[in-house]
Structures are given as structure tokens and as C-alpha cells.
Design goal:
It contains eight helices and eleven strands. The chain is α/β, with parallel strands linked by helices and 231 residues long. A five-stranded parallel sheet has the order 8-7-6-9-10. Strands 2-3-4-11 form a four-stranded antiparallel sheet, with no helix packed on it. A two-stranded antiparallel sheet has the order 1-5.
């Protein structure tokens, strides 16, 4: 694995520790300041809210560090891993099979669309849109998806140019745990989605899972830079 991605190695700490400056004083979920240490590992710290059990990295990366980390994210993590790409393709098909039980057409926005692989599995009856903060990934999505290039937005969803109450379906697949401000993102999504539209979140690490409680810092979904929140 690329050393700039593996947090258990010293290279990772050297590259990203200086960007870790955003301190969280109270729980973003229940607004309580009754926090306790959940685990500290290799210079990184995770806290847990004693009231609602939300686990989160504290402190977290600043915006400069986040932009640095997500440069060519898909290239560093999975693009050259054929097994992982095939496994994800199966997962995408399963998600689409579930989604289309509830909605079969309309406009869809995939937040954090990466290389467009999930959007590609969504049926052609949908008008497809995506947002992505990594330039490499959004360019890959533009190659993979035969849609209007303006439908793929490079940048944070909070700043996207899409009209309010436009989308019939909004998806966040393995994304909500990555964003620095989930509450603001959810408010933005609420403004973009149509009344009675479908909002689909999946592939999110579960902080209450048996694996999280047993393995903590050795849990394979514990990553102090990209997984900021374990809901």
C-alpha cells in the first residue's frame, strides 16, 4: 500500500500530523461536551461522547490537509487493485438493486462520486449528477460517464451550483464519515432534494459494532485521517 495512505507507518504520521489542528469541543450529534478518550494510537486521538456514543477523531485535519490527503485518492487506494474493484462493483449492483425498489427514474446526485463507478451502475432512466473534491477522480468520472460534463462538479457539495429541490434521489456511499461538517452537509442535501425524495446513505463504519469495540485502533475501518466520525 502507498505509504502516504497507510496510517500505521511512520511516513503517514510525518506527512499528515502537522495538518491535524481542528479541535472538537462538543459532540456534533447531541451537542454535549461530556467526552472521553476512546483510543490514542501513533500520535492520533479518538474521543467518544458519553451521552450518545458517537466516536470521532479529535483533533481532525484542517482543510489544507484534507485537500492534500484526497489528491488521487482512488489511485492510491483501489484503482490498481483488481480484486477490490470487482468487489466494489458487486456492492454497487447490490445497492442499486435496493434503491430501484423504491425509485426507478428521475434525477440523481451522488455526493463523493469518485470515478463515477457507482453512478455508472444506476439505470439510464436517471439523469445523473455527481460531486467530488479530487480532480483526478472527477476527470475519471467524466471519462466513465457519458453525461453532460457540467453534471459533474469538482468541489464540496456545500458550494455546488445545483438548484434547490431538484433531485429525486441523493446518494452518499461511504462518504458521511469523511466530511468535516456532517450537519451542514445534511442541511444542504435537505435543500437540494425534492419533497418526498429519497436520500440513501450506505457503506458507513458502525462505531457500535462488535469489531469496533473489540479491535479499536486495529479495526480495519479505523483511519484517523479519512474516517472522522463513527456514528
Amino acid at each position: 500500500m502507498n505509504s502516504t495512505y497507510s496510517f500505521r507507518g511512520s511516513d503517514y504520521t510525518k506527512l499528515y500530523k502537522n495538518f491535524e489542528t481542528v479541535k472538537i469541543d462538543k459532540c456534533i450529534s447531541c451537542k454535549n461536551s461530556n467526552l472521553e478518550n476512546w483510543v490514542s494510537f501513533n500520535g492520533f486521538n479518538a474521543d467518544k461522547c458519553k451521552e450518545c456514543n458517537l466516536i470521532f477523531m479529535n483533533p481532525q485535519l484542517n482543510e489544507e490537509g484534507i485537500k492534500e490527503f484526497y489528491k488521487n485518492y482512488i489511485g492510491k487506494t483501489r484503482l490498481n487493485n483488481n480484486i477490490k474493484m470487482k468487489q466494489r462493483s458487486i456492492q454497487y449492483k447490490m445497492d442499486v438493486e435496493l434503491i430501484t425498489k423504491f425509485i426507478q427514474e428521475g434525477s440523481v446526485l451522488d455526493i463523493g462520486c469518485s470515478g463515477g463507478y457507482f453512478l455508472k451502475e444506476i439505470p439510464g432512466k436517471f439523469e445523473k449528477y455527481g460531486t467530488e473534491i479530487d480532480p483526478f477522480s472527477i476527470n475519471l468520472a467524466r471519462k466513465n460517464l457519458k453525461i453532460n460534463q457540467n453534471n459533474l462538479y469538482l468541489g464540496n457539495v456545500l458550494n455546488c451550483p445545483f438548484d434547490e429541490s431538484y433531485f429525486d434521489l441523493i446518494t452518499m456511499r461511504g462518504v458521511i464519515e469523511h466530511v468535516t461538517n456532517p450537519e451542514e452537509v445534511l442541511k444542504k442535501i435537505s435543500s437540494l432534494i425534492k419533497p418526498r425524495g429519497l436520500f440513501y446513505i450506505c457503506a458507513t463504519p458502525n462505531g457500535e459494532s462488535f469489531a469496533a469495540k473489540l479491535y479499536k485502533q486495529n479495526w480495519n475501518l479505523f483511519h484517523p485521517i479519512e474516517h472522522l466520525w463513527h456514528f
